[in-house]
Design brief:
The protein is built from 13 helices and 2 strands. It is an all-alpha fold. It has a single domain, classed as Rhomboid-like (Rhomboid-like fold, Up-down Bundle). It has a two-stranded antiparallel ribbon with strand order 1-2. Strand 1 and strand 2 form a beta hairpin. Helix 10 packs antiparallel against helix 11 and helix 10 crosses helix 12. It starts with a helix and ends with a helix. The structure holds zinc ion. Zinc ion (ZN) binds next to loops. The site of zinc ion (ZN) has 9 residues, from loops.
Length: about 290
């Protein structure tokens, strides 16, 4: 490889071939396009498209298994309860354990658990709950990845989830809430926005499909008492707004700010999950002493 080749990079904002040492990109004017801040793996994207959905699946399932294991360790009798509560509470982790691991709601927020607005996205209350949400993620995920790319997907999923739980806590005062569905509703919002903006046969078809999911969620939410409609609604509206702000790939190619936002979301999520681990270990050792 020649030194000239080694010195050239793709501008992190406009993706044109430039020299690493440029003070600013000659095409788009981005300052110091070769700096580490703008070229580290976190900004470039940790995940390939299918890797992102897999990573989300792994984090959700791992936390669910951990919450079940902790519930059983806390009370060996718990296994009987997990099996006896009917379909909707089959393999439901204990509420004390879910509280420690970061479920959200007015209760945890009143105790200062502000991180629960993010951590609650990765917790589930029963086997059916996680099964349904992960199935929805695998259905919706590829579509949103296709039209928005991994960077914008990460921001829509993360910020949309926080918006959903914030709406649930501050507008409806839900005592306890958790699950990936606030983030999933943000993905639905992003599909709605894309379908509406893009138009044409394809856009109209997607808009109709996403509208069908919203209708189905509204009916299901009205009939069933255990559904947090405020988290769903907040996630949906949040997803539409974020999608409108970020744009979709066909209109706006990946820009530096898309990458920076997604890096911030990945850092915040990783930091939150590490903090939840520390908090849980501290709470457990306090309970023992
Ligand atoms: Zn550039």
């Amino acid at each position: 490889m020649s030194s000239a080749k080694r010195n050239s990079i793709l501008c992190p904002n406009c993706n044109k071939l430039i020299s690493k040492d440029e003070e600013s990109c000659p095409y788009c004017g981005t300052a110091r396009p070769g700096s580490w801040l703008k070229n580290n793996p976190l900004v470039q994207g940790l995940f390939k498209e299918d890797g992102l959905l897999k990573a989300l699946l792994i984090v959700n399932v791992t936390l669910y298994v951990v919450s079940l294991a902790m519930s059983m360790m806390a009370n060996p009798e718990y296994i009987k309860q997990m099996l006896s509560g009917g379909l909707f509470s089959l393999f439901a982790p204990g509420s004390g354990v879910l509280y420690m691991l970061g479920m959200s709601g007015v209760g945890p927020m009143a105790q200062g658990h502000w991180w629960s607005l993010l951590s609650a996205n990765y917790l589930h209350g029963s086997l059916l709950h996680i099964g349904f949400n992960m199935y929805a993620l695998m259905q919706l995920g590829p579509l949103v990845l296709e039209e928005y790319g991994t960077h914008r997907f990460v921001t829509i999923y993360t910020v949309g989830g926080v918006a959903g739980f914030a709406a649930s806590v501050y507008l409806h005062h839900t005592p306890f809430t958790l699950g990936a569905s606030a983030s999933l509703c943000a993905l639905i919002g992003a599909v709605l926005f894309f379908g509406h903006k893009r138009g044409g046969t394809y856009g109209k078809e997607l808009f109709k499909q996403a509208g069908g999911w919203v209708l189905w969620l509204a009916i299901f939410g009205a009939l069933s008492s255990g559904i947090d409609n405020w988290a769903h609604g907040g996630g949906l509206v949040g997803g539409i707004i974020i999608a409108a702000l970020l744009g979709y790939k066909q209109r706006v190619a990946d820009k530096l700010y898309h990458k920076m936002l997604s890096a911030a979301c990945v850092l915040a999520t990783a930091g939150t999950l590490v903090w939840v681990l520390i908090y849980t270990l501290m709470a457990l050792s306090k309970a023992r002493s």
